[in-house]
Write a structure and sequence with these properties.
The protein is globular. α15 packs parallel to α16. The protein is built from 19 helices and eight strands.
Length: 498
């Protein structure tokens, strides 16, 4: 969440455990401390603090990112051995089942976000104050964000437009068809767009462009290409964003700056800090980006980086997928042998040598832990923000929508070439299917390491050709966790193949 508000977050979340429990049951709500909709939301600060609590859950979505890479052809699971974080290893091999604690985390933590945002929305009419429309719009954006993540991972999910799920709803609310979930998400975002400020009230909060970009992405997934292009074009035409390395950056020095935090390339960014507050018994409690420590080099000593756990290892094929001369290759992937050759003081451990899921010789440089003064367990409190929606992502999604929707190939080429030129590559002059393939290839290079690859392959029908072990008709989505199926008591059907 916002840097200046992080000190408030822990205290608020402890004081509002009534909002959502950490139970495996997505509908279970604990009512300790007497906080409920009757006693809360009596003052402006109540809405503001509840919004902080909803944003806070975004920090736990680090698992969506790291597992989105591991599930794809971009990365091996890695770790100490082939049994280290067994749920990730299973996903890497496409051998996951409904009994998988790591997939259960994605379900639980994203539904926690839905619940917290819904709690604000269902109480929007309790009192009036200046700025309330902005807060409610941000809650709608967040509910849409979490629901979209759940839809991507699990397909049909239960939705409750009127507010929070309560104990027992799991046996009466069905898993809504995907088209209904899409419509629900799109409604939240449409309302949010009408009420969000163009400039965030504080760093890290959603803006009108954040909601437009997310709505454009949702439309792209639904193959509403006209709608996607229109929303993404609004973001581009706003003039709020640009790619680093253009004339607008007088002090631009190198491509590493394109991952700078809260800069002109960041359309929506999840905020992290190096504050203490993390432990393996509650990884979702961390104010730091847990993915970063997990992606670090095992037993590392040397310049620039800190040690980590050696997960999320880019494959050799992914490293070689960059075009010759693409400056993003060095930014995105660290070749450990080349790094060691250039820095003789470097030492590290290889970790797992399993030929399918183990050491590759490469690391996710975008999110490697850097040496810093973070507190507590350095591997769990890394302050690296996650750029959930970047401007380059917007340009490439717009280009894809324009080609797939037969809307404007010339504009699509221009957007693609903007991203390519910043990476030091020449323009492409392709058209038709060749242009679409160029966009797909560049999207992989631009977004590698950021958790998008698996879903890009699935939504474009290319997963079976690129992911070893992928079974069409099954692996497009992940299984509903067994605990949730048991709670539903026959109300839901499991996803096909599981």
């Amino acid at each position: 969440m916002m840097r200046k508000l992080n000190n408030k977050i822990v205290a608020f979340v402890v004081a509002t455990l009534a909002l959502v429990s950490c139970s495996d049951d997505f509908t279970e709500v604990n009512p300790p401390y007497g906080i409920n909709s009757e006693s809360y939301f009596a003052a402006e600060d109540d809405y503001y603090n509840a919004l902080i609590g909803a944003y806070d859950v975004l920090q736990s979505t680090y698992v969506n990112v790291i597992l989105g890479e591991i599930a794809s052809d971009n990365a091996n699971a890695g770790g100490e051995s082939a049994n280290d974080v067994v749920g990730w290893q299973q996903v890497d091999r496409m051998q996951h089942t409904p009994i998988n604690d790591n997939l259960d985390d994605i379900w639980d933590w994203n539904f926690a976000g839905v619940q917290r945002a819904a709690y604000i929305i269902q109480n929007e009419d309790k009192i009036d104050f200046d700025g309330k429309a902005q807060i409610i719009a941000e809650a709608r954006f967040l509910r849409a964000y979490f629901n979209f993540e759940l839809l991507k991972w699990f397909g049909p999910i239960p939705i409750k437009p009127e507010g929070q799920f309560v104990l027992g709803d799991v046996t009466s609310f069905p898993r809504s068809p995907e088209e209904e979930v899409y419509a629900f998400i799109e409604e939240d975002l449409t309302i949010a767009i009408d009420n969000l400020a163009a400039v965030a009230p504080e760093v890290g909060r959603a803006t009108k462009a954040s909601a437009q970009a997310l709505l454009g992405k949702v439309y792209l997934y639904e193959e509403n290409f006209t709608g996607a292009a229109a929303q993404l074009q609004e973001v581009i035409n706003s003039g709020q964003y640009h790619l680093y390395g253009t004339e607008a950056d007088e002090n631009y020095e190198n491509l590493f700056e394109y991952m700078a935090e809260n800069g002109p390339e960041s359309v929506f960014e999840i905020q992290y800090t190096g504050a203490e507050g993390a432990g393996f018994e509650c990884l979702q409690c961390s104010e730091g980006n847990v993915m970063v420590g997990f992606s670090g080099i095992r037993g590392y000593s040397g310049p620039v980086f800190e040690s980590g756990y050696g997960f999320n290892l880019p494959t050799e094929e992914a490293f070689n997928s960059f075009e010759s001369g693409d400056a993003r290759q060095e930014v995105t992937v660290l070749d450990i042998e080349a790094w060691t050759s250039a820095n003789s003081e470097v030492n590290y451990n290889i970790g797992s040598q399993d030929p399918t899921t183990g050491h590759t010789g490469y690391y996710n440089r975008k999110y490697l832990p850097r040496q810093n003064d973070n507190l507590g367990d350095a591997n769990l409190t890394q302050p690296n923000n996650y750029r959930a929606i970047r401007y380059a992502d917007v340009l490439l999604m717009a280009a894809e929508a324009m080609v797939r929707g037969n809307l404007d190939e010339g504009q699509a080429r221009d957007y693609l070439n903007m991203v390519r030129n910043r990476a030091g590559l020449d323009n492409v002059d392709s058209s038709g299917n060749a242009l679409l393939e160029d966009i797909y290839a560049d999207r992989r290079s631009e977004m590698m390491g950021e958790g998008h690859r698996f879903f890009d392959l699935v939504r474009t029908g290319r997963a079976a050709d690129n992911i070893e072990g992928f079974t069409p008709g099954k692996h497009e989505v992940f299984p509903i966790p067994l605990e949730e199926m048991q709670f539903a008591n026959g109300n839901w059907e499991q996803n096909s193949g599981y």
